[in-house]
Amino acid sequence: MIYKFRLTRNLTRNNHDGSAPVCSNSSRALERVYVDDDIGQGRETVSIQVFGAVCKVQPSPFNYITDITYPELKDLSPSIGCNCKEVCRSRICSCVIKNGGTLPYKRDGRISKFKPLVYECGPSCTCSHSCINRASQSGIKFDLEIFQTRGKGWGVRSQSHIPLGSFVCEYIGKVLPDELVSPEFNKHKYFFNIGVGGATCKQSGKCFTIDAKAQGNIGRFINHSCSPNLYAQNVLSDHHDKRMPHIMFFASKDIPPLRELTFDYRVSHVRCADVLRRMKCYCNAIACKEKRPK
């Protein structure tokens, strides 16, 4: 059997020289302490705790939301749903057909493999909410927490083991047309360009971006890595406009507890913001694409 213990430091003690702990760039400054019991304010299915440094620095204020905010578009109509009862299994299911004849998820809810686009059952479908083809709609299942990293600002990790293929969280924010956010690319890093491969939006002449700076969820804190353990999956459920898919994060490997969760900002299957591609990499991975010989 496996036993897990949480080790905590007694922060009431002074340093060896008798002085009180201070906030600096030293390793001592990064000893984890609770900053917020639930940054999600009860809006998530689990509480999301925040661990800061000794000085208890908190993340910059933002409005925590759990649903994507869409622009007012007249052509954003609901998807045409299936007529299945309880759960979707039959090959005659319209959602199964959209996914190439097989459901993208296993019986335990884990995704089978990466696909350029996954069609999930949505509000127009008659199947139950327990249908396996709604795996990313049931909310966060793992005990995620936000913590202060060394050199990369805030990051995300899980207190528990995350199996390969498990849904972790969605990247949520306000969806805006690209022309409204382009001038802001150099001011903050909370933009996520969306669209299936970029081709659909370019052909239509209108592209969109998720802006998670003022309002967003835990997904906005996930950092980049050249050796990531998550991948961003395009998912459609409440509508079928390929220019504005949901961005869902799934585990690309088995992830041990307390390992930082990361994804590759330079992926080609989503239109991740150009500014993120130009940002200096701090992942320190062995396979870092920007690592230079000493």
Summarize this entry quickly:
The protein has 294 residues and is mainly beta. The chain contains 4 helices and 15 strands.
Give a verbal description of the structure.
With 294 residues, the protein is mainly beta. The protein has a single domain (34-278), classed as SET domain (Beta-clip-like, Beta Complex). 7% of the residues lie in helices and 19% in strands. It contains four helices and 15 strands. The chain has a four-stranded mixed sheet with strand order 1-2-5-6, with no helix packed on it. Strands 4-13-14-7 form a four-stranded mixed sheet. Strands 8-10-9 form a three-stranded antiparallel sheet. The radius of gyration is 21 Å and the shape is globular. Residues 24-30 have low confidence and may be disordered.
Q: At the fourth CATH level, what is the homologous superfamily?
A: SET domain
Give the overall pLDDT as a whole number. Answer: 82
Tally of structural domains: 1
Q: What's the total number of strands?
A: 15
**Basic shape:** globular
CATH class: Mainly Beta
Q: CATH topology, what is it called? A: Beta-clip-like
Q: Quickly give the structural class.
A: mainly beta
Radius of gyration: 21 Å
Order of helices and strands: EEEHEEEEEHEHEEEEEEH
Helix content: under 10%
Biggest beta sheet summary:
4 strands, mixed
Strand order of the largest sheet: 1-2-5-6
Please work out how many helical segments DSSP would assign.
Answer: 4
